[in-house]
Design goal:
The structure is a single chain. The termini are far apart. It is built from 24 helices and no strands. It is elongated. The protein is an all-alpha fold. Helix 6 packs parallel to helix 8 and helix 8 packs antiparallel against helix 9.
């Protein structure tokens, strides 16, 4: 009975194996059973699509051709040509190598592989391919030229490394220029030149070399980190964040990249938040945020300079003139050619009614950027205010700051009106002087308590100057200039007593 059960089990296993073989045979027929006609169809379609520039579609047909006939060296060679047209030289190399293995005397494949290896900076392997071509075809002109380039490249590579180790970075850069021309797909040469640029104080040139170098290595975490650090040092925190994220995509547990990522993300968030607060005119909160920026990154000059520049701007907007002047002056010392700092300090001087200094700052800013419309308009306004101040300055007449509100202006007016009312003086000469001062005080009050007139005055135009033809002369008692009688308004009802 047991033997019978074993026989039944064995028969079941054999039956299953037989079915599996049939299934596998059918699948292999589907993959490997392509007819020569079908293979030729794929090759022809690949050729047409390649000529039409439809590279992805052409590659698909060449894949099918290779699967249909894995022993055809020409199929591998043609697929390598598509890879090269797509800029995928690394993918082309295995196909060229397979073509050479299938047909060792296939000179076109050897020459093409040698060219790729040369561009990748692999001089020894490239030389072997060019020599193999010349062994079978001694007069092959391209192989001769490429072999000469391989020898030249090797000598230049040695020279570059030698001068770099001696600290002669300028000469190294000069040698690497030709090296990279001959081997543009070699990441090592670009990385070495980037290191030279960093040591020569030219980080932007380093970035230009490192950016393509990161694409030339399969795992270039070090390159992405270096790029992120360079952008960070230049104040380009968004670019810095993008590159360090690329590093973490390759390995989310990379300690160096993760530590740098946390720092950049924190700083970038603070900077974006500060600028958003400024756009919302929440200037004190923006100042607090920029002070946080300086605590987060106290070692990179760009961020300290940027914070002080923007704090200067916020203080001017808040009309905190004296504090703004201190911060703006400190920021100017750090960045003497920053036109935004010069503009903001000029505005602080205007708030303090120091118009000559405001004009000087705007003139200096214009020297650095003659086309800037905002600077030109600011200079024009400062010059007008300076000219006005030499005639009469309504703020100085009342003894108030340019940021004074209406209540402060009226309070100052009342105090001065009581002080300078002509009835307070005895002699005729004193009365005339007092009357003159009283008119000035009343005129100042009229201009500075009227929003439209005050805006004109702040823009460098005296609304009570007859030369501007914009005085308030619409009727009234003509004994007073521009139809304004200071004794008819306000809480003061005095009567002149003339002897």
């Amino acid at each position: 009975m047991m033997d019978s059960g074993r026989r039944r089990g064995l028969n079941s296993v054999l039956s299953s194996l037989s079915l599996l073989c049939v299934v596998l045979d059918l699948q292999l027929d589907g993959v490997l059973g392509a007819t020569p006609v079908e293979i030729e169809h794929h090759l022809e379609m690949g050729r047409k699509l390649l000529a039409a520039g439809q590279l992805a579609e052409a590659l698909s047909h060449y894949h099918s051709a290779v699967e249909g006939d894995s022993k055809n060296y020409l199929t591998y060679y043609k697929r390598a040509a598509v890879f090269l047209a797509m800029g995928k030289s690394k993918s082309a190399l295995p196909d060229l190598t397979q073509a050479i293995q299938l047909k060792p005397d296939f000179l076109a494949a050897r020459l093409q592989r040698g060219n790729i290896l040369l561009k990748q900076g692999s001089t020894q392997e490239a030389r072997e391919d060019f020599q193999a071509v010349l062994k079978r075809s001694p007069d092959h002109e391209e192989a001769h030229d490429q072999l000469h380039k391989a020898d030249e490249l090797e000598l230049l590579q040695e020279e570059a490394h030698e001068t770099y180790h001696h600290g002669d970075y300028t000469t190294t850069v000069q040698a690497l220029e030709r090296v990279i021309e001959l081997s543009p797909w070699d990441p090592e040469s670009r990385e070495l030149r980037a290191e030279c640029f960093i040591r020569l104080g030219e980080p932007r040139k380093a970035i230009m070399d490192l950016t393509p170098a990161t694409r030339l290595r399969a795992d270039n975490r070090a390159g992405f980190l270096k790029l992120s650090q360079l952008h960070y040092s230049l104040g380009e925190h968004h670019d810095s964040l993008n590159h360090v994220r690329e590093c973490l995509k390759l390995d989310q547990d990379d300690k160096e990249c993760f530590a740098h990522y946390k720092q950049v993300k924190k700083l970038s968030k603070q900077l974006d938040s500060a600028e958003e607060l400024i756009s919302e005119q929440r200037y004190q909160e923006a100042i607090d945020k920029y002070e946080s920026v300086m605590r987060t990154e106290p070692n990179v000059a760009f961020y300290i300079n940027k914070a002080k520049e923007r704090i200067c701007f916020c203080l001017v907007k808040m009309k905190e003139a004296e504090e703004a002047l201190d911060i703006c002056s400190e920021a100017h010392q750090r960045e003497p050619q920053n036109i935004h700092i010069l503009r903001d300090r000029a505005e602080a001087y205007i708030l303090m009614q120091e118009y000559e200094k405001a004009v000087e700052d705007y003139q200096e800013a214009r020297e650095f950027d003659q086309e800037n419309q905002e600077i030109r308009e600011g200079l024009d306004r400062a010059q007008k205010l300076l000219k006005l101040s030499r005639k009469r300055d309504y703020y100085k007449i009342l003894g108030v700051s340019r940021s004074a509100n209406k209540q402060e202006i009226i309070k100052a007016y009342r105090k001065l009106a009581q002080q300078w009312h002509p009835d307070n003086f005895q002699s005729e000469a004193d009365k005339k002087e007092a009357e003159k001062r009283f008119i000035e005080i009343a005129s100042a009050k009229e201009v500075l308590t009227d929003p439209e007139m005050r805006q004109k005055f702040d823009s460098g135009e005296d609304p009570l100057d007859p030369e501007n033809h914009q005085g308030g002369g619409g009727g009234g008692n003509r004994e007073w200039p521009f139809g304004f009688n200071p004794f008819e308004n306000g809480n003061f009802h005095f009567k002149f007593q003339y002897n």
